[in-house]
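I am hoping you can look over what I have pasted underneath with an eye to the fold:
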Amino acid sequence: MHLLHKCILQEIAFPKSIIHVKDICIALALAVVLTLASGITGFAFQTMDHWCHNAKFQDLFQNNWPLRFPANRPVMAYYFGYYLVPAAISRLAGDISPVAILIWTSLGIALGLLWICTSLDRKWWAALLVLCVGDFPRIFKGVASHGSIQLYKYEEIGVEHWSNIENLFWAPNQFIPSLMLGGMLFHMIRHRLDYALLCLPTALALWWAAFPALIAGLVTALLLVFQWIRWGITVRRLFQQVLLPSLAAVPVLLLFQSHPHAPQNGLIWEFRGDMDNLLREYLVNTVTDTSLFVFAYLISRRAGLPTIPAVPFWTLICITLLFPLIRVGKVNDMLLRGMMPVLILIGCCLLYPLASQPLPKTLTILRGNTNCIIIMLALVLPAAVGIGRFYRAARLNRITALWGSPNAEFEAIPYDAYPSLYETLRQRWSQQEADQYLGKPDSFYEKYIAPPPAKDP
């Protein structure tokens, strides 16, 4: 992040005053609220994935690094970037430190929120709505279910994407880099800067979240190609701005390559025998949301509002349409997590036209354009899903548990519920889930980067 900031200051005299103290305070306050509500500290309701998050903190706290499990096996092949700093502080403190987890998580979320907010002309209402983009189909399905209409049957390997605010409650470790990468890339798109500046942050994000970083890298690579076609590129610039920064990704890519088996992958219909149900699921989720995105973009252009260039937007739309058709991971993790930075970008693209205008002008535009009102309502409605999640966190947490109300029962997931992360995954999920973290004894990473300690004679 420091290198990126330095490059921007050197190349385009980026104004240092763009981030105000007021915005920093708002970002920090919102970040603390988001962190507490997410469940990551054990303060409020926790989804089942927190069994895994807590086990990772515990394993890093009590075992030598890099982690090897089961005992005496190769290095665990997983992205642990988010967990390392709180785990290191916990080791110094002698116990798992929820305060360290709270501070570390809040700082990451605050930084991501600042990238989004400053790119949207410091409009916090727009930045918060961006986090909810992607949940419109859930509203659509909720309305249908109240009318006893089943649009499709839910399957484990689905083709629906989740908003970033929904992913926060399941994968806060991937929420943070998605905010940062999405906010930075939209800043580059809006100000027509050199996309090569994103190579280093994207490579570093692989240590925190593989799928969001890979998809953000794909978007950046596509936009770089379009940029080079227009501006041209020299071998020297290619080496300095792209290849050299990308070397930061090599060690973690070698770590990912040390898996005994590649994650399950292929075309989605190869794993689903219910083609009619699959088609309906795709139409209800992907096509409905994508249609909303396209209509909102076109209406903004027709209304004469400032919009981003067409090439980045249509690139994002194509990715949104195509990615549900490819399965990567046990439950299509590439779609669930990889779409996170894409939805941040799309949300910024759609809300920027209104956020870039003074509030009185925005209200005038909405009053005089029925289509704009409809689209704005469609972008605001998904926030109801996020509000529901925060209501749940406000109702089920450590404070309400003290009241003793039967409707406010809450018990935080313990960090040491199981002997290891491996046992957590094996006992709460499956042997397959546990084995996907294992490494190979003959991998390059195991032999040359993190060889096992020598055995005593």
